[in-house]
Amino acid sequence: MMMMVTIVKSLSLINYGDALTKSILFFEGQRSGKLPPSQRMTWRKDSALHDGCDILMNMVGGYYDAGDNVKFNFPMAYTTTMLAWSVVEFGELMGPDLQHALEAIRWGTDYFLKATKRPNIVVAQVGDPISDHDCWERPEDMDTSRTTYYLSATRPGSEVSAEIAAALAASSIAFRNINRGYSRILLARAKRVFDFANYHRGSYNNAIGSGACPFYCDINGYIDELIWGAAWLYKASNNQYYMNFVKSNIEYIQSNEFGWDSKHAGINVLVSHWMMNDASNQSPFISNADNLICSLLPNSPTKSVTYSKGGLLFKAGPSNLQHVTALSFLLVVYGHYMEANNKIVNCGNVVAKPCDLINLAKSQVDYVLGNNPLEMSYMVGYGQKYPQKIHHRGSTLPSLDVHPKHMGCRDGDKYFQSSTPNINVLIGAIVGGPANDDSFQDSRYNVSQSEPTTYINAPFVGVLAYFKKY
Q: Which domains does the chain have, with CATH numbers?
């Protein structure tokens, strides 16, 4: 199959193993709470050590999702699910990075065990986003409101709860051969949280209001998260109840979207793995996954994405690399499944083989790591040229080692407004990425292009592990 023309430089310069190591290291820069002695990103220090005290729960830990200091549990749970899926599929290819990937997962799952400790209570978020976003402040100095937003039977939030259930179930598989006791704890909690999400249905948009919106509003509805959670619980437990739930709700899976808000395409790819053994291959999950592939291939007659002149996939909306990393992950995983089952995909007159999916994913990975018109890596600290002025509080401001005195809400403004590079290098952070004309504005003011997020990095971990090996 003919692939798109891209601006090519020597691909021998791309080191997938180095990128993998750094993509995982990034998560240490996003940690909240009491940092362990093994902390490698040493300019980060302990922060938010009293989270949850307003509701008498210990909510210390977890991740800051992006360049701010709020713990948004909806995208954090998706991040944890994707880290776990990366290990489930490609952990054996990670070498010494596997241990660090498991540590990154556990930093999330330990927090979610706290968030779901009380029956029929699920913590959905910690930190008031309005007051947080009004300050440019180190997480170590936070004096903004640390409101704990939680869900209950009368104030449900099925999308957050079900995504947490998915994260716990997927992580139980990742830890199964490493720590069986911990794996069992995760699976048991996943079942309980899924039941809460399913039996007390409703959107967290309504339950916590301005805490979620407009920052991480659930635009897509919560049914896809319920199906996603059930699919992961089936994979973790082999309990037919969860597969029956997935199959009975197939009519709700109608789009090719995949990310922190929409799980449709991910469900189809995940479930297709169990359906491919059927000789007839008539499962709607397989046909839906095939449709996803046909929507992405550059020369498919049903392509629904665009590509820049330099070869980067684009979908509508900000922070485009979140789509690139998530869809690249699905391309690699589905290509892997297809190869194991001698499967092809027919897109009209175009026939796609597993290698075509892998090659498309590789073109996206290589673009992100520097094979692009600007010859810029969009992973901080990787390569010779990468974003220097990312939209990230901790990276922008001097660390406690350099400036031990408290910095207040507006004390960081001069660093934000500075034209000099960030003081601390947030190694491994993948930013929102270039515009669709392949241009990039290295500016803290350009949030869409210059802000990193955990959910951009998480799917890339598995993709990099695959290309490190193959």
A: 14-36+48-469 (1.50.10.10)
